Amino acid sequence: MTRAEQVVEDVGKSRAGWTPGRLREQREAHGLTLEGAGERLREVARSAGLTVPAANFQTLWQHEQGEVYPGPHYRRAYCLLYRATEPELGFRHGLPSEKTRMQFTPSAEVHNGAHLLAVERALLQMAPGTEDTDSEMLQQRILDAWKRRHTGGDPNRPTLVLVGGYAGSGKSEFARFLSQLTGWPVLDKDPITRPLVERLLTALGSEPNDRHTAVYREQVRPLEYQCLLEAAYANVDCSISTVLTAPFVAELTDVRWMQRLANRCEARGVSVAPIWIQCDIDTMHEYISFRSAARDSWKLQHWDDYTASLNPDLCPAVPHLVVDNRLGAAISLTDQVRQVFGTVF
After folding, report:
1. How far apart are CA 123 and CA 101, in angstroms?
2. What pTM, to 2 d.p., does this model score?
C-alpha cells in the first residue's frame, strides 16, 4: 500500500458519518453491477478531467463493505455518477450549508433550470466572511459574466478576485471553477513562479522544494508574490477581470497591503474581491498526500510541526467572502456543475 493510500485509509477509519452501505444502495437503485459501476466511474472521471480510478469490482466491493475508504477522486467520481453529495452517499456527515435547498430561478436564457440551479448552489458556497461584505454582488457578477459569455458585453466593472487559503484547501480547484463560469483568466502562483523559485532557491544554497526555511520566507517568497501581482496588474491595467490564486495568508491579513492593492485597482475602475477557502486539517492532509507534489514533502514529513503554525479560524482582515470547503463540500458541488454543463464550458 502506498503512503497516499494509507493516509486515505486512516482518514476513512476516523471519518464521522461514514456509512458504506449507501454506496451499494445507490448502485442497486441505478441497476448497476459492480463491474458496470466501475466502468461508469471510469467514464465519469475521464469526462470530468479527474485522475481516472482503476475502479475494479474488488475495490468497489471494499468501498461498499467499509473495508477501504474511497480516496478523493473516487469520492468525486461517485458524486458525479450518482448525482449526489458526499453526505448523501454516506461518506461523512453533512455541513449546515449542504442541507439548504434552493428554488429554481426563472430565466429567459437558453439554459434550463438545471443549469441555473447547479450554478447557484455552487455560488452560494461563497458566504460573507464579515458583516460588511456584499456576497450577492460578486455572485451576481459571476452569474452575469457566465450568461453573457455567448451574447457579448458585461455591464459590471472588471473584478480582480483573490482566492486564498492554506495548502490543500481547494483554492486552485475553486479558482478554475470561477474561470470556467466567467471566462476570466486564472493566474495561479505556483505554475507562474515555480521554475524561477526552484532555480533561485538552489542558487541561494537551499533545496528547490524548500517552502519552510527563512531563506524561502525572507528572500524568495516576496519576489514570488511580486511576480504574481505584476502579472495581475498587466490585466488590471487593461480592465480585464482576473482570478488570482495563492495562499495569500500574510497578504489578506494585512490591511495596508490590501488597501494598496485596492487603491491601484480603483484607479483603473477595477473592483477587488477577496475569497478565503476554509478547510479542515484532515481534509488538507488528505488532499496534499493525494497530489504528491514535491513541494509538499516537508509538510508531510513534519505534519505536526507544520499544522502547529496554521490557524484553522484564520480569515482576512478586510471585507471578504468565505467558501466552506471543509470535508471537500464546495469542490463536490463544482464537479457537479461541470457535469451538468458538459461541453458548454
Report:
1. 13
2. 0.68
